[in-house]
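Technical annex B. To support the medicinal chemistry partners, we prepared a structural model of the target in complex with zinc ion, based solely on the information shown next.
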Amino acid sequence: MKIICIGRNYAAHIDELNNERPSEPVIFIKPDSALLRNGNPFVCPDFSQNIHYELELVVKIKKPGKAIPRAFAPDYYDEVSLGIDMTARDVQDTLKAKGLPWEKSKAFDHSAVIGTFRSKEGLTLNNCRFRLEKNGQIVQDGHTSMMLWSVDEIIEHVSQYFMLKTGDYIYTGTPAGVGQIASGDQLVGFLEDQELLQTTVI
Ligand code: ZN
């Protein structure tokens, strides 16, 4: 399986990192070795002094598809969750300045924390709230209505380049409020008011 991630999908997050607003979705991929299952601790890697959390809505692909029109995109997922796109911001800044690919900063081991999946039933995916609490304080309070590209538009775009396969995950971008983690932090993610994700930083 693969993990497809969307960058710069919320205007307020683009502004907080002083990035340009893209004219089409920014895409990158993490390997399956990046996955960290819900409840397991996240160990900060030695190569970074500045790991950031990025809480994101995640959809799980349920059947193969290529060049999927957005009207048919809902047929390709039944389950959603939250994930944290852990990012070595210092490494990423160096790579970006040199115009190099982001993989060392985004695709390292356990950089894709994944929560427990739930049915999409009962949710309006383009209109739901999600939040990350760090040590009991809300640090990210996102709303999917603020996405530049909706889940279905993302699937349409991504599947032009990459064949989607059963079990693939799509991380749909992070809202504003990203920040640094430190040893001992407790991170908990909620979709609407349902807790779906939890990890402790070591
Ligand atoms: Zn992200």
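Notes passed to the chemistry partners:
The pocket of zinc ion is lined by residues 5, 7, 54, 56, 85, 173-174 (CB under 6 Å).
The chain has four helices and 15 strands.
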